[in-house]
Design goal:
Length: about 230
């Protein structure tokens, strides 16, 4: 059956690969985006997840077209990297507001329909940095680490309603962001990855699709690294 899927930040990179994976499987896919032109083939809704009113409006549009969201992939996120002594209050709070509080907003709103249906799948996109740490990314790492506690708390709170909450923690992925790095920076990163290469966005998407499938019906509160071994042991 075609399910109603929402991927936040689904207009590029990992989010777009996830959206395509669900669409290719025949699901009805909505994506949120904050700026630029969204890709074709999806119900694209402009939404800044730091604004509760925009989140509410986005859900109303999606529900009108596709019905209540059955699978939510909370992928939207930002970085504002800076060493701690140079990190401003705004650098810290804006990253937390998007990556953590924004996730809270979209999950809470999706939960309304999931509770009524007595089923649902929520997948939060974290990062190996949230488990491993990274110099200059204290704000980003804190926001991504917090998603683990958030998901596990909700897994306990709502497991009896047949709603699962899981976390995918990607490592370094071959996207426009990593393509912008210098050869020296790329080599330094790959030196710490046992598999010796970047992930493809489709590899992250495959893991997310698995967690939303019937095969993963007894998995909740899990943190699945897709990082080539970079963060193993965490």
């Amino acid at each position: 059956m075609s399910r109603s899927v929402l991927v936040t930040g689904g207009n590029r990179g990992i989010g777009l690969a996830i959206a395509r994976a669900f669409a290719d499987a025949g699901d009805k896919v909505a994506i949120t985006y904050r700026s630029g032109e969204p890709p074709a083939g999806f119900l694209a809704v402009k939404c800044d997840i730091t604004d509760p009113e925009q989140v509410e409006q986005a859900y109303k549009e999606i529900e009108a077209e596709h019905g209540p969201v059955e699978i939510l992939v909370a992928n939207a996120g930002v970085t504002k990297d800076q060493l701690l002594m140079r990190m401003s209050e705004e650098d810290f709070t804006s990253v937390i507001d998007t990556n953590l509080t924004g996730t809270f907003r979209v999950v809470k709103r999706a939960n309304r329909g999931m509770l009524r249906a007595k089923k649902g799948r929520v997948v939060l996109i974290s990062s190996v940095v949230g488990l491993l740490g990274s110099p200059g990314q204290a704000n980003y790492a804190a926001s991504k680490a917090a998603l683990v506690g958030f998901a596990r708390s909700l897994a306990r709170e709502l497991g009896s309603r047949n709603i699962t909450f899981n976390v995918v923690a990607p490592g370094f992925v071959d996207t426009d962001m990593t393509k912008a790095l210098t050869d020296e920076q790329r080599a330094g990163i790959l030196a710490g990855v046992p598999l010796g290469r970047y992930a493809q966005p489709e590899e992250i998407a495959a893991t997310v699709r698995f967690l939303a499938s019937d095969d993963a019906s007894y998995i909740t509160g899990a943190v699945i690294p897709v990082d080539g071994g970079l963060g193993m042991g965490h």
